[in-house]
């Protein structure tokens, strides 16, 4: 009985010591708060990614999965011209989507940040209302707009500007770019707006007092100070659009197929998971390298401007 009471007292003292340690240590409190999130991240993100990486180093013969280490899947991924062409096309389409989306989003964010005096929150809601609907609905909407008998062709024919529907509007890379740019516009507007909103207006007033015009103020102050938001928007768009397979499959046609479509076929239809995993890992690696190089290049450019 005495031993049980002693053990209970020891546990109580240990718990009190741990509690006191957590209260005194900032890092310990931070780890305690991050603990549940880290567990979820490991189980929901790191573990599947690790399994995907493991599959990429295996091979498959019919229905038999060979778990011996091999680089054959990566050799196939980079040696076949068709896969390399899809990698290049995916990166090219995603780059164009990123540039187009940022160029379209910047004026909208600039208008709300500098021209709207009241009810900015309402303006932001109005800008994002179209993106409250399902992603698939928006893709299908663009398919209807760009289709053979869609809104554009019907409108042009009713105005007498064309006599037959335009066939080049749909099922090509241009349709993929247009659809993706619209689908991801909100993800570009918001970070750019936040970056513009943080700019000290007194800097613009000082530049105006020193004789700088509107264009010169924008190029020397507004644009450089808003580059973090532009860079964040570019990363948010470039990374996921490279791996998009829904939009290319619906509006891209054979000329708008991207690498993610082939990865989806490998996993879902052919069942060659090792090759699909190798293509996915190679795609992620290329996107990561290009993103890091672009970020470093922009930082160097901003440093030279400053």
Describe this entry's structure for a reader:
This protein is mostly helical. The chain has 2 domains: 1-56, no CATH class; 72-305, MetI-like fold (Orthogonal Bundle), CATH 1.10.3720. The protein has 14 helices and 2 strands. It has helices at residues 2-24, 26-56, 72-79, 81-115, 120-128, 135-146, 151-158, 173-183, 185-197, 201-209, 214-242, 246-252, 259-270, 273-305, and strands spanning 59-61, 64-66. Strands 1-2 form a two-stranded antiparallel sheet. Helix 4 (81-115) crosses helix 11 and helix 6 crosses helix 8 (173-183). It is globular, with a radius of gyration of 26 Å. The termini are far apart.
Summarize the structure.
This protein is an all-alpha fold and 306 residues long.
Average the pLDDT over all residues and give the rounded result: 86
The end-to-end distance, rounded to whole angstroms, is 75 Å
CATH homologous superfamily designation of the largest domain: MetI-like
Query: What structural class do you assign from the helix and strand content?
Result: mainly alpha
Our count of domains comes out at: 2
